[in-house]
Structure formats: structure tokens, C-alpha cells
Amino acid sequence: MNGNNQNTRLAFLVVNFGSSTLLARNLAPAVRECRPDVVVVVDCWSGEDERQRVTELSAAEGWDLVSLPDNRGFGGGMNAGAARARQLGATQLLLINPDARIDSSALDLLSTVAAEYPDALVAPRVVDAEGKTWFAGAVLHLSDGATSGRSARLPEATDGIWEWISGACMMLSMQLWDAVGGFDESYFLYWEDVDLSRRVTARGGRLIVVQEATVLHEEGGTHKDQVEGRGKSGTYYHYMIRNRLMFATKHLDAEGIRRWRRASVTNAWAVLLQGGRRQFLHPVAPARAAWRGLREGMALAAFALKNDGSERQT
């Protein structure tokens, strides 16, 4: 698939962690329809049986498989995938989750915009299985570090927000990927897309959500420790809460870090509530994960403040 530019070489990048069933259900039919030039699946180690399944699936589908000896998280996996795609001559990257599916019409729209704006991080509108919008642009509120949909909470001033694009599905040029250095692997899971978005805009790039392009997303489908009917996974709670303050140490001044730190308990409770109240019938596991994330995030903030502010990259 060369889109509207014969010089474009498109690569699909997917990170797998125990999700070979989702790859068969979502990636395989999408690749057959969209026909990208390169498909790179990065398998983060989750066990011998899963390694065998994803190896066999990749061979049958003609995908390029990068088998990592450990679990490097979403960012680390995507960085490994992009490195392999570069070796295979890719000039444009589509990063997509195993639990997301794209069709050819959405891909053409994204590819056209990405080719026209090589400095842009481009995303579709993401919908759930019922057709409800899951992502159509998002903002980070600098007052307290909360995130929301683009229109869910209006800031008092436009300089009080930073926009960001979800890593569930995004497209960008290899040129832009190299310019920003890919994902920051220290996040491991969650907030690395917020971080990437910030680094793109900080260097003068733009974030574009193509509302006419829609992608289906089965939210939570890649979380191995999520129990049906009991909310989000412990992994989700831990990293979502921790990484908010990690982001602060990388992008805010000392005053900003303190401001976000003061709102951390409120924010952690809001993250827990995303899993619904039924989970509190079995509260120990989610509470433990949230506390661990809060404790680690607070430690990161304290370290940054002790060392004269933060390790800001922007």
C-alpha cells in the first residue's frame, strides 16, 4: 500500500504481550484489506506457549516478527518495531494496538494527512464495539494533571492545557519519529503517548485527529490481569497513577510538580473509579495497585524537587 504517494512505504507496528488471539482477530483481516508494505509484530516475552503461537501466526501471515527476550512495555516494544521497520525501508508508521482494527478507508485518510504534514502526529477517531466514541482528541490539564476528552472539561484559558493523541492508533512519518526519538521507555505503560505528543508539539510539530477516519478499539483487551466484571487491571492502576507524576518531572517546573503532587490522591481516586464501583466488592487488589503507583509517583516527584526542579525535556 503506497497511499497517495508512490514514494511512501508504510509499516504497521504492533506490540504483542499475550495477545495472539487479538492479532488473529484484528490485525490479520486489517492487513489483508489494507495491504501495508511492511508489518512488524514485536512480541514482548510472556511465556513459551504465547511465543510459539505468535511465531506461527506471523509466519502464516507473512509478518516480520521481532521476538524480545523480555517485556519492555509498550514504548520499548514500539521502539524495537520502528527500528526493524526502518531496516525494511519504511517511511511512514502506523502504530496500532492488538485490540484495535483499522480498515482501508480510514487508513487512506490517515496516510494522506500524514504525507501532507510530515511534522504531524495523526490519529483517527476511535470507537468502541457499540460505536461510541472512545477517543476523538484529548487534553492534559496543567492545573492538576487530569486528562479528559477534548470537550469534556473546558479550561479557564487555552494555555492551561496541552493536547495529546492516544497510542491506541497513531500515524507519523519516520522522519518525525527519528526527530523526537520515539517513545520514552521509562514509562513502560501509559502516558508515553502523552509524552510523545508533548515532545512533538514542543519542537513545532502538530497533532491532528482525522474525525472522518474511525478505528474500532476493544478497550482493555490486552490486559492479562484484568478480571471480567472487576474493573480495570492492577497494571492499569499502577502505571496510570505513577506515570502522571513521572510526566510532571519530565515536563513541568518545580511549581508545576508541586501542584500536581497536591492533586495526586484525588487523581488516584478518579483513576480507580474508571473501573466502576463493582470492583470494590474485591477492593484489595485495585487498592494495592493504586497505592503502589501513588507511592512510586510521589517518590519520583520528591526526587525531582530535591534535585532543583525536574528533569524537564521541554
From TrEMBL:
<comment type="pathway">
    <text>Cell wall biogenesis; cell wall polysaccharide biosynthesis.</text>
</comment>
<protein>
    <submittedName>
        <fullName>Glycosyltransferase family 2 protein</fullName>
    </submittedName>
</protein>
<dbReference type="InterPro" id="IPR029044">
    <property type="entry name" value="Nucleotide-diphossugar_trans"/>
</dbReference>
<keyword id="KW-0808">Transferase</keyword>
<dbReference type="GO" id="GO:0016757">
    <property type="term" value="F:glycosyltransferase activity"/>
</dbReference>
<dbReference type="Pfam" id="PF13641">
    <property type="entry name" value="Glyco_tranf_2_3"/>
</dbReference>
<keyword id="KW-0328">Glycosyltransferase</keyword>
<comment type="similarity">
    <text>Belongs to the glycosyltransferase 2 family.</text>
</comment>
